[in-house]
């Protein structure tokens, strides 16, 4: 009985918070001791700006909270397919396309993204106009189609459809380039076939 309770004691935290600790480095030693169980990691209200590369070892992590740190648009996250929620409010993110592309690529299962109070996320609270706010939302939603909540607001189907329409230009230019590549591939194949016929 004693042995059983000891082994439990060594282990399992599903939630770890290092908020308000004035950290300049991520305390990996403590965090990575919980790789088998950790689902929620709160590193908010610190002075962090380093790329959190080693967090990729947290295979069960679903929620990453990085509010009120010094992260910029150029932060490099590890690939974390288990994460569904990222909170990175009040950091130093000012380049929306760069940041959103990083989120889209590294968190393929993301459903909730909150990035309020960053320059890249204009809203009433930081001097952004309603038009800027709507455009910001549509851009993010168009780039991360699986998103269910952006900031503190759900993504209704109507907004998702509008976002797709607004930013379809980007996709259609990509598909027309692909069509050109396909047709040139066909042309090459036809040329090869005609060469084969000539040889016979």
Offer a concise description of the structure:
The chain is built from 6 helices and 7 strands.
Instruction: Give the number of DSSP strands.
Output: 7
Shape: globular
Order of neighbouring strands in the sheet with most strands: 1-2-3-4-5-6-7
Q: Output the structural class.
A: alpha/beta
Strand fraction equals: 5-15%
CATH topology: Leucine-rich repeat, LRR (right-handed beta-alpha superhelix)
Count of the domains: 1
Average pLDDT number: 85
Order of helical and strand elements = HEHEEEHEHEEHH
CATH class: Alpha Beta
CATH architecture tag: Alpha-Beta Horseshoe
User: Ranges with pLDDT <50 over ≥5 residues?
Assistant: 1-10, 186-200
Q: CATH superfamily, called what?
A: Ribonuclease Inhibitor
Q: Report how far apart the termini are.
A: 84 Å
Rounded to an integer in angstroms, the radius of gyration calculated over CA atoms is 23 Å
Region (Disordered): 162-200
InterPro entries: Leu-rich_rpt, LRMDA, LRR_dom_sf
Protein name: Leucine-rich repeat-containing protein 72-like
Organism: Seriola lalandi dorsalis
Overview of this protein structure:
With 200 residues, this protein is of the alpha/beta class. The chain has helices spanning 2-10, 28-32, 96-106, 130-143, 157-166, 168-199; strands at residues 15-17, 40-42, 63-65, 85-87, 112-114, 149-150, 153-154. Strands 1-2-3-4-5-6-7 form a seven-stranded mixed β-sheet, covered by helices on one side. It starts with a helix and ends with a helix.
